[in-house]
Amino acid sequence: MIHRILVAGALSLGLAATAHAGEFQCSAWIGAPSATAPPSSNFFGGPIIKASDARTAAELYQARISETTLPLKTGRWIVHHVRCDQLK
């Protein structure tokens, strides 16, 4: 019985956190570690990220592109900057 109450409480907290999450459009400047200025071809925009704030959205987006973008995955390029704008 107590286990069910704890599970129900955790689920309701998770739903409340999701309900207050915002939607963010993120982009990242990726390139060689020695790059000094962002070339326009290396700014990648991605899908909408749902997160509680821009910092969390940036972390989620960076983790996603680090796993899916081959030059990042192999270590040839790095993420120099991530920018996330909240959608209205």
Folded structure, characterized:
- By secondary structure, the protein is of the alpha+beta class.
- The chain has a single domain (22-86), classed as Ubiquitin-like (UB roll) (Roll), CATH 3.10.20.
- Helices cover 42% and strands 32% of the residues.
- It has helices spanning 2-19, 54-68, 70-73; strands at residues 22-31, 43-51, 78-86.
- It has a 3-stranded antiparallel beta sheet with strand order 2-1-3, covered by helices on one side.
Summarize the model shown.
With 88 residues, the protein is an alpha+beta fold. It has helices at residues 2-19, 54-68, 70-73; strands spanning 22-31, 43-51, 78-86.
Task: Sum up the structure in keywords.
elongated, Ubiquitin-like (UB roll), alpha+beta, 88 residues, 3 helices, three-stranded antiparallel beta sheet
Count of helical stretches: 3
Largest beta sheet: what is the strand line-up?
Answer: 2-1-3
| Low-confidence regions | 3-19
Q: What is the number of independent domains?
A: 1
Distance between the termini: 42 Å
The main β sheet shows up as: 3 strands, antiparallel
Choose one word for the global shape: elongated
What would you report as the Rg, rounded to the nearest angstrom? 17 Å
CATH architecture level-2 label: Roll
CATH top level is Alpha Beta
Number of strands: 3
| Average pLDDT reading | 78
> How would you spell out the order of helices and strands?
HEEHHE
